[in-house]
Amino acid sequence: MGDEPFTERTPRIVNAAKLHRAAARKKAGRFLAEGSNAVSSALRYGDVVEVYLTERGLDAVGAEFDTLTGTDDRGVRVHLITDRAAAALSESVTPTGIFALCRHQLVDLSEALVGDLVAVPVETAEPGNAGALVRVADATGAGSVIFAGSTVDPQGGKAVRASAGSLFHLPVARHTGVAEVIDLLHERGYTVLATSGDGDISLDTAAVSQDGEPALLGQRIAWLFGNEAHGLGDWQDLADVRVSIPMRGAAESLNLVTAAAICLYETARVARGA
């Protein structure tokens, strides 16, 4: 680490700050991860180019940081930066002062079709929801996440931070063709389920065996989760079964991340029992 900290005018910081824009991330093939959880996971499982730390950020990670970077073995360059430089790099009101410049993390669609449980958020618009959904998928043991349709970039700053490092733990893909994604899921042997307020069956029913047949959730499952504002719309018609989450209180609906957490957790629970 050099003696003079990088400022907001240092070319490296200026170029890194441009990665707030999706077009710049796509052109450079790089993105920023912010926060100790995200940076730690990026260093362990991702492809990090270099790390930027404020004095406060360096104090926060302390001796642990030397262990995580393994600078002698991996050659990850660490740069001290000013608070103003951190403000330029952050999309948060209160920057953490801990950043990693990472190479492109997303995988091709075919590489994301792994495991017996796949989460497919469709036309997700909110970065925080995108990141949180990746985190939920990771926590419930899903094999991958595929963002389908016109979606927010899961490598954007807010999405990466909301994933709390999970973006680096499992394959995440992004594909604009929703029908193409569903067709490929069918080809690979997945039963495609869609969340719906007026589903064909309830999640409770899908979790138990019927007439001697295995529970629906015990199969190889891909879940479609709809847009925050208008749900899945006509895309739910391409699913094999539409499933509703029983509402036992007075609430009329659940937000995207909560619905996904319930469906993925219940599917994983049934699979473990099977």
From TrEMBL:
Instruction: Write the record's keywords in alphabetical order, separated by commas.
Output: Methyltransferase, Transferase
Keyword Cell division in record: no
Query: What is one Gene Ontology biological process annotated in the Swiss-Prot or TrEMBL record?
Result: methylation
Alphabetical GO CC annotations of the entry are: cytoplasm
Write down the InterPro entries for this protein, in alphabetical order. Alpha/beta_knot_MTases, MRM3-like_sub_bind, Ribosomal_eL30-like_sf, rRNA_Methyltransferase, SpoU_MeTrfase, SpoU_subst-bd, tRNA_m1G_MTases_N
What would you give as a GO molecular function for this chain, any one? RNA binding
| Source species, domain of life | Bacteria
Q: What Pfam families does the annotation carry?
A: MRM3-like_sub_bind, SpoU_methylase
Residue ranges of domain RNA 2-O ribose methyltransferase substrate binding in the record = 32-108
PANTHER family of this UniProt entry?
RRNA METHYLTRANSFERASE 3 (PTHR43191), RRNA METHYLTRANSFERASE 3, MITOCHONDRIAL (PTHR43191:SF2)
The UniProt similarity line reads: Belongs to the class IV-like SAM-binding methyltransferase superfamily. RNA methyltransferase TrmH family.
Protein name per its UniProtKB record:
RNA methyltransferase
Tell me what organism the protein belongs to.
Corynebacterium kalidii
